[in-house]
Amino acid sequence: MAEKQRVVLAYSGGLDTSVILPWLQETYGYEVIAFAAELGQGDELTGIKKKALASGAVDCVVKDLRKEFVEDYLWRLLKAGAVYEGGYLLGTSIARPLIAKHQVEVAHAEEATAVAHGATGKGNDQVRFEITFMALDPSLKIIAPWKDPNFTLTSREAAVEYAKKRKIPIEQTKKKIYSRDRNLWHISHEGADLEDPANEPKDDLFVISRPVSKTPARPEYVKIGFREGVPVSIDGRAIGGVKLIELLNRLGGEHGVGQVDLVENRLVGMKSRGVYETPGGTILVTAHNALESLTLDRETLHYKQQIALKYAELVYYGLWFHPLREALDAFVDATQRNVTGQVRLKLFKGRCTPAGVKSPKSLYRTDLASFQMGAEYDPTDANGFIRLFGLPAKVAGMVDRIGQKGRGV
What we know:
alpha/beta; Rossmann fold; Argininosuccinate synthetase, chain A, domain 2
C-alpha cells in the first residue's frame, strides 16, 4: 500500500477544526497533524493536545509564539502606526501570517505534503493563511474544506451530529453566541445581534474590558517608556513585551479603554460589522503617536501617516510576507531612531489621553513655540514667506476676478 500523505491542520480545538480533522482523514485518507499556536488566548488551549489525539490526529504540535508575536509582529505594527479604516488595530490580521508560517515549518519537519485551515470562503482569514502558504512554500498543497464541494458540515447542527457519531469531544453545554478571536493584542466579536449595525453592543459582550458604564469613577495614570519606537518600561520599570501588553490589557480593560464598534470593508468585497476590545494596544498606539508628535519633523511625520494607511492594508489583506511590507519596514525603522522618551497617559471612562510627554530627542522648543518673540524668530520674516507661499492663490484670485468682470458679474 502507498504511504499515507500528511497534512498539517491549523487547529484551535473549536467545533469547526474538531470535525475538519477526522473529515480530512475520512475524505482524502490523510494523516493529520494538528498545529496550535499559543498567542495569548487565555485558557483556550487547555487540554488541546489530548483533544486533537482523541479526534484522530497522529500528532499535535503546540508552540508558544507569544514572544515572537510581540517582538517581530506587534512592535512592527505599532512602529508603523497601522490602523485599518480608522479603528481596527489589526489583532486577528497580524496573527494569521505568524500561525501560517509555523504551520509551514511543522509541515517541513513532519514531511507533510499539504497544509489546511478551517477559515470559511467568505472571510479574510482564508486569504491570510493561503497567501502565506504560497509565499513560504508554493509546493505545499492547500486544503480549505469550507471551499470543498465535498464538505457538507457547514452548519453547527451538522457539525455537532458528525462529532457525536465519531465520539469527538466537543463542548455541548452551551452554544457560542458570537464568533470570537482572541490573542495578546485583542479579542474580536462578530455574528448574532451584531450582524445588524442598528444594534448597540450589549454589556455582556465584553470579555477583557469593562462596559464603560461600569468603569471606576476616578482616572488612573500610567507612564510608558519607549526606545526607538518600542515600548520598554511601565512606570519606570523595565518589562518584557509579553508582560507589558498583559499588564496594559488589565489596566485598560479596567477602564473600558479600546472598545471599537466598526463596520469595515472586507478584502473579499463585502462589509462586515465587528466589535473589538484592544485595551493594551490602544494605550500603546496613543502613547506612540504622542511621542512621534514630539520627535518627528513635519515632512517625515506627514509622509509616515500616508505609509501607515498602506501598511494597514497590507496586513489586513494578508500580505505580510510581501516585498513592499519589508521595504516599508526599512522606512519605518529609519523614522523611529529618535522616537525615544516617556509618555504619561490618563485612563478614564473608556478614554485614553496623553497627560504629558517628554523625550531627549524632542524637537519642541519652548522659546520658539512661545507667543513671546525671541531672538530665534524674527516675525518680519513671515511677510516674505506668506507672499511667496500665497502667490499661487493670489494669481488664481486675480484670474478669477478678471473672468467675473468679463462676464459682467
